Every structure is written in C-alpha cells, then in structure tokens.
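[Archive record]
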Amino acid sequence: MPKLDEVKARLDWLKEQFKVLVAILVADVAGISKLYLDAQHGLLFYSGLVLLVVLTVSIIIVSRKIEIHLIELKDI
C-alpha cells in the first residue's frame, strides 16, 4: 500500500505541474500573438518564442513522466 500511495502522490504532483505549464504556455502564446499583431518584433517577442519552445519541451517531458507513472500504477 505505501508504494501505491507514493505513486499516486507523484502522479498528483506531476498533474499540478502540467496544469501550471499549460497555463503559462497559454499566456505566452497570447503575449506572442499580441506582439506579432502589433508588429513589435523586438527582444520580448523573440524571448517569448524561446519560452514557447522551452515550455513545449517541458510539457512533453512532464506528460511522458505522467504516462510512466500511470503504467507503474497499473502494474501495482
């Protein structure tokens, strides 16, 4: 039973991380699109694009970890 509780706790933590990353991603996309529509292609626009790539990779990593823990949970 302790193993089951540990896996569930890690899974809950990863789901919270996923929610936060998606919220930041949505805000970043909104900011990038606003800067693009205003034709302000400065440092802030390009740093937003870099952040977009970093957030996308982070979301992929967290979702993969969630998948691994779900498989582990199924095996218990």
